[in-house]
Amino acid sequence: MNRRKISLRTISTRHLIAWIAVIIAVAVGGTAIALAATGNGPVPPPKPLATAAHDALAAPVPEGVTARVSFTNHLISSSSIEGSDPILSGATGRLWLAPGQVRLELQSDRGDAQLVAGGKSFWVYDPRSNTVYRGALPEEWSTQPWQKDQKDIPSLDQVKSFISRLMEHTSVSGAAPTDVAGRPTYTVRVSPKRNAGLIGAGELAWDAANGVPLRIGVYAKGASSPVLALSVTHVSFGPVPSSNFDVSPPPDAKVVEVDTPGGQKQDKSSGEHAPVTGVDAVGKAVSFTLSAPDTLAGMQRTEVRLVNTGKGNAALVTYGQGPGGIAVFEQASDPNHPIPSPQGEGDHHGGVDLPTVSIDGVQAQELATPLGTGLRFERAGVAYVVVGSVAPATAEAAARGL
User: Fold this and answer.
1) Could you say which DSSP state residue 199 is in?
2) CATH classification code of 279-400
C-alpha cells in the first residue's frame, strides 16, 4: 500500500466533512444509533423525563448490538456531488457494536464504505478514492461506554438537577413513549433557546428496556426533517461474533495516517502543560502575523488559543457565544497542500463542487450547509479557515474582517 501521513487539518474537504458527520453521529449515539419514524410497534408506559433518563442510565448494558441502518446526509446538496457516494449522499448498511469495538458499513454501487474501530486504533475506508484513513483512539475507548460502575450512576435527584440546568439554556420536551424498529423507546427533543445559529434541534430516543440510544437526528432551524440521520430498520441485542470485526481494507488501497487529538500514539511523558492563550502570547508563539480583531461580524472575541498541529504552531480564535459563534483557525500556508485554484464556477474538490467567493480579492472556497458555513483561503503566507453555524453572508463578513 502507498502510505502518507497527515493531520486532520490536511485531509480533503470532502472526506473530512463527510466522515466527521458519520463519526459524530456514532459518538453522540454512544452504543447504537438509529433514526426511524415511529411505527405501530409496542410503546413503553408514560414516565417523567427524569425517571426515564435515570432508568436508562441504570439499565444493564447489552453484550452487543447488531443492526441494519440507513444513513441520510443532507449537509451538501446532491447536485454538488459527483456520482454515487455512500458517505455524502447517504446509503443503507449495517452496524455492529461490542465492548470496545464498532463497525459501520455503508453500501453503494461503487463499493462499501467502512468505519472500523477497536483496541487502540480505527480506520475508515472510502471506496471512491480507494483510500483508507488510519488513526489512534483515546485510551478510554476500550472500556467506555460498556462498563458501568454503580457508584457512578447518578441518582434520580441528580438527573432532575441536570435537566433543570439544561433547561436554562434549551427547551427540553418530555419523554414521549414511541417505538423505533419495533422496540419500545422514549423520545426527547432538545432545542437551543439562544445563540444557536442555524441549529434547530436535536432528537434522541432510547430503548426503554436497556437504555441503548435508538434514535438520533440533527435538525436545521425551521426544518421538519433531519439534516443528518442514521435509521435502523432492524436491531438485535446480544453477543456479536468477533468475526464481524475481522475485516480489512483492500490491499491496494492508499493509506493515510491521521493524527488525532487524544490518540494513544501521543507521547505523554512530558506531562500536561498550561494552554497558551491571549493575543500577545499566541502572537509570539506562531511564525506568522496573527489576525485577531476585537470584533468580527459583529461578535466579540472570546478566546485566542495556541494549537499545535504536529507541523508547527497555529492559532484558534473564537467569537461570540454558543453554536451561533464563529471560529477562526490560522496557520502558516503549507506549500505541499495549497488550496486548489478555482475552476469555472466552482472548485471541484474531491468529488464535491465547492463554489468560490472573493474575500478582498482573494478567492476562497466556501462550503454552505443547512447547519453552518465554512470558508478556506490563503493570504500573505497565512491559511485561514472560518467556520460557524452561520449563514454564508456572516461567514464572508467575518473573513473580510481578518
Assistant:
1) E
2) 3.30.200
